[in-house]
């Protein structure tokens, strides 16, 4: 999904040169306690929904007119929806206990604003997005 050249720093393979550069920058910050790479978050747990293609798992066969098990939900009347997960680029723990979750902007993803909003709703703090500029790293 991501574009960009893979770059190796400290034996770690990064998806892009920009991510690798940001990692190097994080290592120079003196307020950083630890850095977690590719941290994963659940934005929404998995859930079940009622199958709307049948009546409690059963349908009338168009061919035979008999009552048969619904193929979509396998006769259960329920369908599973997978959890919605998001993998950020970095999770930074600062000396003062603050946590910063950071996504390095270097790719286009039209769903990202939705991911960001859901992450912030779930966690109650900002999902930081950084961009490299001529003068250094900037939050966007
Ligand atoms: Zn069904």
Care to describe what's here?
With 140 residues, the chain is an alpha+beta fold. The chain folds into 2 domains: 7-45 and 84-139, Trna Endonuclease, Chain: A, domain 1, CATH 3.40.1350.10; 47-81, no CATH class. The protein contains 2 helices and 13 strands; from the N terminus they run E-E-H-E-E-E-E-E-E-E-E-E-H-E-E. The protein has helices at 17-28, 112-123; strands at residues 7-9, 12-14, 32-37, 40-44, 47-50, 58-60, 67-69, 78-81, 84-87, 90-94, 99-104, 127-133, 136-139. The strands form 5 sheets. A 5-stranded mixed β-sheet has the order 3-10-11-12-13. Strands 1-2 form a two-stranded antiparallel sheet. A hairpin with a 2-residue loop joins strand 1 (7-9) and strand 2. The longest helix is centred in the first third of the chain and has 12 residues, at 17-28. The two termini are 21 Å apart. Zinc ion (ZN) binds next to loops.
Brief summary of the model shown:
With 140 residues, this protein is α+β, with helices and mostly antiparallel strands. It has helices at 17-28, 112-123; strands at 7-9, 12-14, 32-37, 40-44, 47-50, 58-60, 67-69, 78-81, 84-87, 90-94, 99-104, 127-133, 136-139. It has two domains: 7-45 and 84-139, Trna Endonuclease, Chain: A, domain 1 (3-Layer(aba) Sandwich); 47-81, no CATH class.
Instruction: Report how far the terminal alpha carbons are from each other.
Output: 21 Å
The chain-level mean pLDDT equals 93
User: In angstroms, what is the radius of gyration?
Assistant: 22 Å
Give the helix tally: 2
Tell me the helix content.
Answer: 10-25%
How large is the share of residues in beta strands? 35-45%
Counting DSSP E segments of at least 2 residues, the number of strands comes to: 13
Order of helices and strands: EEHEEEEEEEEEHEE
Bound molecules: zinc ion
Residue windows where pLDDT falls under 50 for at least 5 positions: none
The largest sheet, given as strand count, sense and whether it forms a barrel, is:
5 strands, mixed
Major β-sheet strand ordering: 3-10-11-12-13
CATH fold field value of the largest domain: Trna Endonuclease, Chain: A, domain 1
The CATH architecture of the largest domain would be 3-Layer(aba) Sandwich
């Amino acid at each position: 999904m991501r574009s960009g050249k893979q770059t190796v720093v400290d034996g770690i393979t990064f998806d892009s040169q920009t991510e690798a550069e940001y990692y190097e920058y994080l290592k120079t910050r003196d307020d950083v306690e630890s850095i977690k790479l590719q941290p994963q978050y659940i934005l929404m747990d998995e859930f079940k929904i009622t199958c709307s293609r049948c009546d409690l798992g059963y349908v009338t066969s168009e061919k035979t007119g008999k009552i048969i098990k619904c193929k979509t939900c396998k006769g259960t009347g329920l369908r599973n929806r997978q959890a919605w997960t998001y993998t950020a680029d970095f999770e930074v723990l600062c000396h003062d206990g603050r946590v910063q979750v950071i996504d390095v902007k270097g790719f286009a993803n039209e769903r990202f604003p939705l991911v960001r909003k859901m992450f912030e709703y779930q966690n109650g703090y900002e999902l930081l997005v950084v961009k490299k500029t001529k003068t250094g790293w900037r939050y966007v």
